[in-house]
Amino acid sequence: VQLQASGGGLVQSGGSLKLSCAAFGFAFSRYRMSWLRQAPGKDLEWIASIEGDGKTTQYAHSINGRFSISRDNAKGTLSLQMNNLNPDDTAVYFCRWDYTGGFRRGQGTLVTVSS
Question: According to the 3-state scheme, what is the secondary structure of 17-77?
Fold first, then answer.
């Protein structure tokens, strides 16, 4: 199983970024997928999840409607569109495969938001 997150970078406050996660080695469309992040010096934070069929999504309150999670089951990719970014969004972002009884988290991608 591999989970490869990409798309991070440096962006100014108010800007947008789209993160992607390529998933390999499991039946992607059958499982819930999630995005998490870890800001410097802080705990890991869950921010969004999407069910296998892509029809049901959930978001952390801290996102305040600025992010949108989506997936392309045909390509095995998970995405996170992030808008109106602010410096508090600076973190390493991870995608996570959620399966019965556990989860697998891939290597993250760094997002830095400058003020």
Answer: EEEEEEEECCCHHHCEEEEEEECCCCCEEEEEEECCCCCCEEECHHHCCCEEEEEECCCCE
Query: How does the average pLDDT of the chain come out, rounded?
Result: 96
Q: Tell me the three state secondary structure of residue 87.
A: helix
Q: What is the pLDDT of residue 57?
A: 97
The neighbour count for residue 51, using CB atoms within 10 Å, is: 14
Question: Rounded to whole angstroms, how far apart are CA atoms 1 and 73?
Answer: 16
DSSP state of 107: B
Query: At 43, is the pLDDT very low, low, confident or very high (cuts 50, 70, 90)?
Result: very high
CA 28 to each of CA 8, 100, 107: distance values in angstroms, whole numbers, following the listed order: 22, 14, 17
| Over residues 17-45, mean pLDDT | 97
CB 42 within 8 A of CB 53: no
Residue type, 63: I
